[in-house]
């Protein structure tokens, strides 16, 4: 009996320790209590504090692109910049540990989770989709792989008419932002930037070595450096990972919006815990439509408190491949048929906006639910399916 009681007490302590570990990782106040939360006083502002203010640039979404843009634009002290992110600041010590912080399946992980619609190519199965919900976006929870993609992808954009998007145009910016710990002498790699990465050798794992052996059998070439623009598109190479010299995850808010930088830039405001519900689009004197601001609310589950901020120069959408088109739809920009279906006034009929993400599906009965979320300004939940 004493043994059973001792085992039960030991089990309870293990469960409590595990819960505390998760709470520390994701700053869960329900477990830690308000007095035990481990904040580092990262300088953010609430939705109410930025309400009715004007900024030269408003950046929607604090993921990779949003963090970089907010950092670069605010380098000019004359430019007032507002970055709005729905998620919180997650900067606990566990969130810096590469392996633990990569567990985006955890219930408390700072992520959005969706299920795709059944896909023909994989026998009608659905895939799980995840995206980061925190300042730093998916770089808070991803597999840390630093990849620039193939030069041909950028050249194809240029050939399609997108000026200044060739590999020759974009490579200097990759180099400017990068701090490579492993390839300091390599042409095209950066050492003066703030986004730290290093080469990761994983051959000691049996499964990795087996995969390497398979590439040899199929005559896939081996290259010594990832992100070498002269390498073939298909190759076997050690990966570059966004891990700093201390072995910590180097997410984009750490790299481009560190606490000291944000504290020193009085022209930069970072608003977390706020959900943008629509763009404020008006017709100018020249007859053209222009985004003059954004409408947003606190991310408290209710949209009763409605706030707005005004843009002197521009509004930049950096909310990702799912939420950016959703915001355009909520603002009246998208396929006319879809907007009329959900009773959103059409400001611009633009079929290129992916209305199918929200209101068409091979799964009967999901379209109506998704339309209601569009009208309410709510991101799609895990119970909705995205084709």
Automatic annotation (TrEMBL):
Transmembrane segments: none annotated. PANTHER family: GLUCOSE-METHANOL-CHOLINE GMC OXIDOREDUCTASE, GLUCOSE-METHANOL-CHOLINE OXIDOREDUCTASE N-TERMINAL DOMAIN-CONTAINING PROTEIN. PROSITE patterns: GMC_OXRED_2. This is Alcohol oxidase. Belongs to the GMC oxidoreductase family. SUPFAM superfamilies: FAD/NAD(P)-binding domain. It comes from the Eukaryota. One of its GO terms (molecular function) is oxidoreductase activity, acting on CH-OH group of donors. Residues 320-334 form the Glucose-methanol-choline oxidoreductase N-terminal domain. InterPro entries: FAD/NAD-bd_sf (IPR036188), GMC_OxRdtase (IPR012132), GMC_OxRdtase_N (IPR000172).
């Amino acid at each position: 009996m004493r043994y059973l009681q001792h085992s039960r007490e030991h089990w309870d302590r293990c469960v409590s320790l595990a819960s505390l570990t998760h709470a520390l990782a994701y700053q869960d106040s329900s477990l830690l209590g308000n007095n035990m939360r481990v904040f580092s006083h990262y300088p953010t502002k609430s939705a109410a504090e930025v309400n009715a203010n004007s900024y030269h640039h408003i950046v929607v979404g604090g993921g990779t692109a949003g963090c970089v843009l907010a950092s670069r634009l605010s380098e000019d002290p004359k430019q007032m910049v507002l970055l709005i992110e729905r998620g919180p600041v997650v900067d606990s010590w566990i969130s810096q540990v590469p392996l633990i912080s990569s567990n985006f399946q955890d219930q408390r992980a700072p992520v959005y989770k969706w299920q795709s619609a059944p896909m023909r190519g994989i026998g009608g199965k659905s895939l799980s989709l995840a995206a980061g919900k925190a300042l730093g976006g998916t770089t808070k929870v991803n597999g840390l792989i630093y990849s620039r993609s193939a030069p041909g992808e950028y050249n194809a954009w240029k050939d399609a008419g997108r000026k200044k998007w060739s590999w020759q145009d974009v490579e200097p910016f990759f180099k400017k932002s990068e701090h490579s710990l492993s390839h300091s002498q390599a042409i095209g790699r950066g050492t003066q930037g703030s986004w730290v990465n290093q080469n990761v050798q994983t051959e000691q794992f049996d499964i990795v070595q087996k995969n390497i052996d398979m590439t040899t059998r199929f005559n896939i070439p081996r290259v010594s450096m990832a992100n070498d623009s002269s390498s073939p598109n298909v190759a076997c190479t050690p990966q570059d990972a966004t891990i700093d010299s201390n072995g910590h995850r180097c997410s984009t808010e750490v790299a481009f919006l560190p606490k000291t930088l944000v504290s020193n830039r009085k022209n930069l405001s970072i608003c977390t815990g706020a959900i943008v519900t629509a763009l404020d689009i008006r017709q100018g004197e020249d007859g053209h439509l222009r985004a003059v601001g954004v409408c947003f609310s606190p991310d408290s589950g209710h949209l009763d408190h409605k706030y707005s901020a005004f843009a002197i120069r521009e509004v930049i959408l950096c909310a990702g491949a799912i939420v950016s088109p959703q915001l355009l739809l909520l603002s009246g920009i998208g396929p006319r048929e879809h907007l009329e279906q959900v009773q959103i006034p059409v400001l611009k009929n633009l079929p290129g906006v992916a209305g199918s993400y929200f209101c068409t599906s091979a799964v009967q009965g999901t379209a109506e639910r998704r339309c209601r979320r569009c009208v309410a300004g709510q991101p799609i939940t895990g119970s909705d399916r995205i084709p």
